[in-house]
Amino acid sequence: MSKHPQLNRHGELRHLLTVEGLPRDVLLHIMDTAQGFMSFGDREVKKVPLLRGKSVFNLFFENSTRTRTTFEIAAKRLSADIFNLDIQRSSTAKGETLVDTIANLEAMDADIFVVRHSESGAPFLIAQHSPDHVHVVNAGDGRHAHPTQGLLDMMTIRHYKRDFSALRVAIVGDIVHSRVARSDIHALTTLGVPEVRVVGPKTLVPGDLRAMGVRVCHDIAEGLRDVDVVMMLRLQNERMSGGLLPSASEFHMMYGLTPERLALARPDAIVMHPGPINRGVEIDSSVADGPSSVILPQVRFGIAVRMAVLSIVAHTAA
Ligand code: CP
Question: Whole-number mean pLDDT of the chain?
């Protein structure tokens, strides 16, 4: 596989596997394309024929509410045929390998696979084993990457803050297990955000994250002071191997986003969260539902970003 397997030799996006290594102009192209799709939700006819005749397979080997549904909405708005594989009832449960499952779906004339998997690297493996005309979009793999979440987060920030070049952004919570944090850090630094802080206890925010170009803060007040954007993350209990935290309530006491803590940020700071939120753990309800919260607009941006990604990869040659 080449260094950037997701780009063709002209630098165009043919798979979306990770934000890491994607040039700024590719990120901006996706965001600008998504901007053109933002008004579709308000139209009487919400469809365009950009993917008419294409078959999109949603392969979610891990649970999802937002990503799976918004990919389905995006594919339908682009007039694609979308198939949601029911993993619990699929032959994966009988021991079929991922590569064999994919080969069989390719025999059914798949054009695009949208893949979520608990194993980091699964979408890369599928891209390696797919013929040139098939495109793969990573919908979240293990703790590695969640590129469309990273992109929709950048759309949200650009919408509310306009310019990336003078922002302070704090990402708070369980950074070490978070594919969203990784994708957001790569996107924010590529787009020129001068200060990205990662905030949380040492067990969830190890010092070696500094290698990603971020400022590591274990003190919540230091992490939140004067930031423009607060991105909260939930505790990824399904990826923890135990003993990293005394309890959820202790985490809330030390790092939960309360109105008092939010007051340390700039007065016009926005509060983001990829969802699902755990109220009373990483975020108080009064903040999640309050005037600074843009958590639900993030979901809306997700439809437009996923329309953009599907329409771009589907029309990119190998
Ligand atoms: N943000 C996100 O990935 O949510 P889901 O797990 O519901 O898709």
Answer: 95
